[in-house]
Amino acid sequence: MDEMLAGRSAIVTGAGRGIGRGIALCLAREGADVAIGDINLANAESVAQEVREKGRKAIALECDVGTRKGAETLVQAALEAFGKVDILVNNAGVVGAPGWQDRAEPSDEDWAEVLRVNLMSRVYCSEAVIPHMKQRGYGKIVNIASIGGLQGSSVIPHYCASKAADINYTQSLALQLGPFGINANAILPGILFTDMIRGIHDQGKVRDTSRAELSNEEIFRKAEERIPLGRGQTPEDIGNMAAFLASDLAKNITAQAIDVDGGMRMH
Ligand SMILES: NC(=O)c1ccc[n+]([C@@H]2O[C@H](COP(=O)([O-])OP(=O)(O)OC[C@H]3O[C@@H](n4cnc5c(N)ncnc54)[C@H](O)[C@@H]3O)[C@@H](O)[C@H]2O)c1
Predict the structure, then answer these.
(1) CATH superfamily of 9-190+234-258
(2) CB-CB contact of 113 with 119 (8 Å)
(3) How many angstroms separate the CA atoms of 29 and 51, rounded?
(4) Is pTM beyond 0.90 here?
(5) Distance CA 135, CA 27 (A)
(6) Of 43, 51, 64, 230, whose CA is between 20 and 30 Å from 20?
(7) What percent of the chain has pLDDT over 70?
């Protein structure tokens, strides 16, 4: 099969590990050059090297995309490295401020941090790249939300609210940018056993007391039992959807929030 993204250039935020790394590698597999922005430079550099090993260009930048300055610096660096940005994948995300796992309830700082990183980074990065995309009459914005954005949660209400905001913001972007040839869609992963999820379910720290006695592995197995397809997702599952939405195969798809969850939300 031909590469879906030959000649394209992309930015992926929070791509130093987990889902973002999977997305960066899928975009590269499909032919795109990739700018990797992360607060962890060593991780970003290691993923950039993996992209180069696939024969694509890559840059790694240490940046906090939850600040306007960090987002603008990342977009500028990608423009300088590649000459254009066709694709923005807003993936960076957190579940709270440092130490959130130890708090019985989300604190003011936890609420502020999830809104800053999970929502405002999407706003800052999009606003930084939109003038360039408008000028070219071409662009694909993919926001990584969560099925949690369509369901409340007794454990992480602040996180779910931020993901609901991601979905709603994606719809606004699609309405604003459609006339300029720019698509905006959201991907809603179900559950992936990344470092983030291990943090949520860290043994002994889980706030859902009905499951406090279970180990991570037992919690993951229980979660998989709820999934019709019987498995958690992989970063590559999410990367494949991101590559499709960023490609011209999806040129008539915009304003959508697409579950990649093995059917988990319907169960
Ligand atoms: N893991 C899951 O089950 C799951 C499910 C649904 C949605 N998601 C979403 O997928 C995305 C990735 O999650 P993950 O599981 O790979 O998490 P992760 O914690 O493994 O990776 C997140 C990455 O983002 C980076 N990052 C955090 N804050 C940043 C900032 N301010 N600026 C730049 N980089 C920053 C981290 O350094 C890290 O490399 C998140 O938006 C998350 O909400 C995850």
Answers:
(1) NAD(P)-binding Rossmann-like Domain (3.40.50.720)
(2) no
(3) 8
(4) yes
(5) 23
(6) 230
(7) 94
